[in-house]
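Incident log, structure service

09:12 report received: a user says their structure output differs between two submissions of the same chain.
09:20 pulled the input from the user's history:
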Amino acid sequence: MKAVLLTLVLVLASQLVSAEYSRSYIESHPLHTVAVNGVEIAYRIVGEELNEKPDKPKVVVIMGLGGSNLVWGDTLIKGLEEGGYQLLMLDNRDVGGSTRFDSWGQPTLWLQLIKQKLGFAVNAPYTLDDMALDTVALMDQLGYQNAHIIGTSMGGMIAQIIAAQYPQRTRSLISIMSSTGARHLPWPTRQAESNLRELAVGDAAAERDAMMRARGFYPDSMPRQLMAIFKTGDRSVDVASIQANTLVMHGADDPLLPPQHGMHTAELIDGSEFVLLEDMAHNMPENVLPELISRMRAHMDKVEAYLESDMGRG
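09:34 re-ran on a clean worker, output below:
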């Protein structure tokens, strides 16, 4: 069980670290912080130039386990901005410029996994619901009435919670390589675990850790955020209540959250669109980014066109 939990953390890190990572454009936008929901949340806004469309549709992007806003990479962020959207990029609690929970310490992973398997509550300093409320409270502070909510991996779980619990704040939902947390869904593949055991110790572990930090990940926060996922548990009922226009995308080769996780999400959300992307694992590789961006923009453009026509009729 300890090896399986190690796999959950390491697969995510190794897959996303290898993805597109230029970030100079993102870093050219200042990082601000604001107090919300009892913590400090760091954020950037991309695409707020006043000499263009003054009321650009808003987008909130939420990164996954242990990742700061930098992990999105310039290519994807530029691609969305060029579609005429203003992006709110935040650091989830416990990463980047947001409040860290290092003083809480580290969970005993194997013990918490046993508790989770037996249906007992695990120890965690916060839950995914807390992180969703962080995002909504940040939107309140910045005057975002609603937005297209985009999340990847754990960020997709947070995005799903926002769409379910705060429907009036959700213009549309895009859930990427994420999950409902349902117990029947498959665990990481055995091949993934086998491939990663060699990364767990020695020089390989030190090299992996350095790569992760350089890429914008916070390894010390990953176990705590993993516990937040476990503590929140199965969100299938919540996900099934989502009424927002939804696009679910998943990598065909994802070893961490096999495609059944994305399929289950789409099955539960009435009228959602599911896209299985070839050549994509638990990452957003450079060769797949054009299709990711194109599908995300098409989804949001369709929603925007519908809302404008609906307002016109009203």
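09:41 both user submissions now match this output. Likely a transient worker issue. Closing.
09:42 reviewer note: Confidence is low (pLDDT under 50) at residues 1-6, 195-201. Residues 2-313 form a domain with the Rossmann fold fold (CATH 3.40.50.1820).
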